[in-house]
Amino acid sequence: MPSLDFETERQEFREYYNENLSLLEGAKNSFITLVGSLIRSSSEVALSKIEGRVKDRDECVKKFSRKYRTTLETERKEYQIIDHITDLIGLRVVCLYEDDIEKIKELLCEHFEVIDITDKIALIENTENSFGYKGLHLDLKLNEQRRSLPEYSQFVDLGCEVQIRTIIQDSWSVLDHKIKYKKSIPNNLKRRINSLAALFEVADREFREIRIATEESIKAEDITQEQISQESDQGEAEGDVPKFTVSPLNAFSFLKIANHFFNDFEFEPRKVDGFTEEIVSLKPDITRGKFNFYMRENISKVKRYKDYFEKEFPGNVLNPYTVIRHCLYLGEKDIFSTMLTNQATETFEAWLLENG
């Protein structure tokens, strides 16, 4: 029963906590699985990590005393400590980009009952000359649909606080907690702390802008294969001086062309980046039209070699990257000779000698 006796209420909360710790841990794990599953099912969101914890018992009591006890007792309002600890079960969702936060919020609001929302991002951004921890906090409970499912029957009365942050915000939060004195300190130290926080904000914004610019660059290379072929033909007709001089080969155009020739293979961005850099380092003036020409003219022959090689040497596979290496080698052996190992070159040349 609620009362104004702090010692009684503290003891009752401790007993509740001790008796239900196993249940709270189970709810935490279940919520982590559910939230993670919902977010990962959305292809629009890049998730870095999701983790959770059950708040320490004595930390709960300290938080209640710090935030609520004085007001409640001054106003003579009876209380139970458990009613004021909304983050007894806490989850932290860390995403990559600022605009992912709103997407995650909308997703969770759709699948949970929302008790409260605290937007610390807006609180900070609407305060002049102030920087600090940013993030979005949602107090959630299972919605009616999930409360009816047997796997959640034990947790129908339990809620959780979900903190949504970007990697940058999460990093700043960790570092911010390590700064021991931030309020009653000399102004020059305050300015340095604020400057550091501002740098984190700039980094967050720049990561998002770089992602957007990358997506736009990929769209810019989303031209038809017919146009790329025209560039290939034009380059050959004019003595290898492409008409489209503003179209050098880059990771985006490489991916466009490679996907045309290997439409069932998933090219990883990291590998595409390094592989394109290797090609350009050997032929700095290579255009996307010229690269397409090497592929178009040589891939048929290299695929015949691939069939021979994999049959002759069981267990060895020529993946798309290796096929591309052979196409480039055939295109200009003097320039692209280092794209094949000595053994690979000898085997390929021996096959070419026999097969024209």
List the helices and strands and how they pair.
Blueprint: H1 6-40, E1 47-54, H2 57-74, E2 89-95, H3 98-111, E3 112-119, H4 120-125, E4 136-142, H5 144-147, E5 159-166, H6 167-176, H7 187-220, H8 225-237, H9 251-261, H10 269-282, H11 288-312, H12 320-331, H13 333-336, H14 342-355
Parallel strand pairs: 2-5
Antiparallel strand pairs: 1-2, 3-4, 4-5
Task: Give an account of the 3D structure.
Helix 6 (167-176) runs antiparallel to helix 7 (187-220), helix 9 packs across helix 11 and helix 11 packs across helix 12. The model is unreliable at 241-245 (pLDDT under 50). This protein has helices spanning 6-40, 57-74, 98-111, 120-125, 144-147, 167-176, 187-220, 225-237, 251-261, 269-282, 288-312, 320-331, 333-336, 342-355, and strands spanning 47-54, 89-95, 112-119, 136-142, 159-166. A 5-stranded mixed sheet has the order 1-2-5-4-3. It has 356 residues and is an alpha+beta fold. It has 14 helices and 5 strands. The protein folds into 2 domains: 6-188, 2-Layer Sandwich (Beta Polymerase, domain 2); 221-355, no CATH class.
